Amino acid sequence: MSTEAGTDAGTDVGRAGGPGAAGAPDATAGRAPSTRAPVHAASGHRLGAAHPRQEGPADLRLVPPALAAWAAAALVLDAPANWAVGVAACSLLMAGALLLRPVRDRRRGQRRDRRRGRSRGGRHAALAALLLCVAASTASAALHGADLRRGPVPTLARQFATVTAEVEVTADPRLTRPRVRGNRAVPPTVLIEADVRRVTETGGATAVTRTPVLLLVDVGGETGNRAPDKPPKDSRAPSTGPGTSRWLGLLPTTRLRVTARAAPPRQRGDRIAAVLRVRVDRRPPDVVAEPSATQRLAGRLRAGLREATEDLPADARALLPGLVVGDTSRVTPELEEAFKETDLTHTLAVSGANFTIVLALLLGPPGLAQRSERRGLAPRLGLHLRTTALLGGLLALAFVVVCRPDPSVLRAAACGSVALLALATGRRRSLLPALATAVLLLVLYDPWLSRSYGFLLSVLATGALLTLAPRWSAALRRRRVPPRLAEALAAAGAAQALCAPVVVVLSERVSLVGVPCNLLAELAVAPATVLGFAALATAPVLMPLAKALAWCGGWPAGWIAEIARTGAGLPGAGVDWPGSWAGAALLALVTVGVLLAGRRLLRHPWWCGVCALLLVLVVVQPPPLPRVIKGWPPPGWRMVMCDVGQGDALVLAAGENTGVVVDAGPDPALVDHCLRSLGITRVPLVLLTHFHADHVAGLSGVLRGRSVGAIETTALAEPADQADAVRRRAAAHGVPVRRAAAGEQRRSGPLSWQVLWPPPSPPTTAAPGTEGGPNDASVTLLVRTAGLRLLLLGDLEPPAQRALARSPAAAALHGVDVLKVAHHGSAHQDFALMRHIAPRLALISCGEDNSYGHPAPDTVAALRAQGATVLRTDRDGALAVAGTGRELRVAGD
Prior knowledge:
By secondary structure, this protein is α/β, with parallel strands linked by helices. 45% of the residues lie in helices and 15% in strands.
C-alpha cells in the first residue's frame, strides 16, 4: 500500500522456508550431526545432534515497553514542547520511585515473604522499564517535532515567500501519477524529500539550518520515465524528457541549489516543515555537491539492475526491480491498481521477506530460527558463529543502503540485526522479543515511524506470522491438512486477518482474493528475489550474466504480475468498505466472527466445501448470477451510461458480450469495472468524442483484457498531449485509429449509428462550427437499436449546437427517445435545439459534488419542461436503458 501504505504480509518468516516458521517441525530430526557442527562449536557454543529448541511460552516482556514507546511517540510528535517535557519528567519520576521502593522497604526493615517480594519487585521493575521507555520515546519525539518548528523555513512557508535554498536530498525522487482535473490531465510532478541546509529569502539574509522539506518540481509537462527519442516498449508507461530524467536520477546526499516558493504542508502532523515548489522550465538541477561514495555505489547497483531488466516483457521489466530494491518507477497505474485489488502491494515494496530470503542463503531457512545450528552457506564455508553474525550485519547494512530506509526495510533489518546479535553472543533466539526490540529501537531512533502506515502493517504482518500462524498451522495439520499447505494457509490468513482493518482505512475496500493470490504468488517471490539480487550483484562487473539472470527472474516476476491482473479482473475481487477507523473496527469484529465460525466449520468438511463454493461463486460471478442477485445488468439492455465520476463513458449493446464504447471517462479502473459488470469482452469500436481528459484518460481500462477492433476520434487533435497519449495506447495494443466525420454510417450486430457532427475538414484546418475548440469538435451520434433512437451530443457548446440544428440532419433529431445531455448538463446549452429534440429520457453524466455545478438547474428545468425524465449518475449511479419502440425502461445500478 504508497505510498508507505503497502501490506508486508509476507515478512520475515513467511516467504522463505515456510510461513509458520516459529512452530515448524524439525526437518532435520533423526539425522546424523552435520560435519560442519565442530566449526560452530569452536566459537564457544555447545551443540548436540538434537539441535536444541526453545520450549515454553513466548517471551512477551519487551512487548509492553515497545507498544508504550510507540504510542507515546505518536501522541507527542506535534504536541507543545512544554507538554512533552512534562510527560517525560513525570515518567522519569514515577520510574525512579518504583526502582527505589525496594531499597526503601529494606531500610525500613519490613518483613516480607521472599517469594512475594521477588514477584512484586519484578512487577515494579517491569513497570519502571515501561515508564523509562515512555520517557525516552517522548523526549525523542519532542526533539524531532521541534525540528519542524525551529529556524526560518516554517516562517517563510507561512508567508508563501520565494526563497533560494541549498538542500540535501534524503530519499530517491519519485514521480506522481498523471491525474485528471476537470477536462485536462495534470502532468506528473517530481517529489523529492530533502533537508534545507541553507536558505536565503529574496532580498534577505542567509540562514544556516537543517529543516526537512518536500520539493515539488514542475518539469514543464514532461512525463514518464524514458527519453522522447526512445519510444517506450509499453506505452501504458509514459515517456520522459531529459529534464525529468535528470531530476529523477538524483541520489540521496546530493546537494542542490533551488529557487522555489515556500508553502506550509497541507496536513498537520506531516514530517516536513514546508513544501518548496520549484519551477525549472526543463533546466537540469543545479548540483552543489555530489552524493557520497556509498550512495554512488548503491546508485550504480540499482541502475545496473534496471539495465539488466531492460529487455524483459513489460510486466516483468516493471516488477523485478520493485521486488528486489523497491524501484517501482516502471510500474504502470493499471498494474499498481491490480496489486492493490489483490492485496499484493507488499511485493511492490521491499519488505522483510527480501531480507529473510537473503539471510536464508547465509544462515539457512527461517524454519530453523529457534535452533543454534544453521544450514545455509555459513557452515558450509566454515564460518564461525560470530563471523557469521558479523557478515549478516554487514549484509543488513548493505540491504538498507541499496533498498533505501523505508519503514518495512528498517523493521526487517533491525529485527534481523537483533537476531544476529543473539547469534554472536550465544543466546538462544526468539523472534518475538527480537521484533519488540526492533520496534522499540526504531521508534526511539525515528519517532515518525510511529505514524507510518507502512511500519504498522509491517509489524502487524510479522507479529501475525510469529503468533497466530504457528497455532493455525498446527490446528490445520491436526485436521489432516498437508504440512506445507497448512503453513502457507496459516501464514497468509494470519497476515490478512491482522492487516485487513488497517488496509481498509487506506483503500476503502476489502479484497476477497487476497489470500489465494498471496498463496500463488509465494511460489514465485523467493526465486524472483534471489535471481534479482544475483543480477543486481553481477550487473556492474558482468552485464551479459546479469541479463541472463534477470531473464530467468523475469519468469517468476511475470507470474506474480499475471496473478495480480487475473485476480483483479474477477468481478467479485473485492467489496467496498467504509474507509475510516470505525470501518476498520467493524471489519475487525467481522473478522473475529468469521474466525469463530470457521473453527466450528472445520469440524464439518461438507459445510467447509459449501462455504468455499459460495465464496468462489461470489468472486467469479458467472454471468447469470449477478443478474439474478443484483438485477444488473437488466435483461435486454440497449445502452448503459457508466458512473465514472466527472466524465463520460457509454456502452451500446452490440451482441453477446459485445459493446460499442463511446468515451472512456477519466479513470481506467471505473470504466473497466463498468464493462466487467456488463460482461463486455469484445469491443468492435471505441469512439472518443473529443480529446479532453475526462473523456479519454480511462482508455487503458477499456483496452484491458478485451478484444478491441478500432478507435475512432474527432479530427481536432487538441489537447495535443491527450491526443498523443491515445495514439500511444492504441499503438501498444495494435488497435488502428481513424477519424469520424459527418455522414458516416456504421452497423455492428443489431446496432446502427450515424455520425452527425463534426463536418469533414482538411487535416490542417478546423471544421466549420468547431472554432470554439475541442468541445465544439465533439463527435455527435444518432444511434438506432431495437426501435429506439438515442442522441449522443458529446460536449457540444451552443455555437456547435446551433450549427447542428441548421444542418441537413436536424430533421432526424426531433422526438428522439434518449438524449445524452451535452457537457455534463452544464448551463451552456442551446435551448432551441433542446425544444426541437424533445427527448423522452435525458441522461446526465457528472461527478458527485463536482466543483463545476453540473448539472445546471436551468438545464434540468428546461428538459423537464419538455416532458423529459431526467436522471443523473451522481445521484442514480450507472444507468441502463432497455426496451423496444414505445416500451422504454431505465434501471440504475
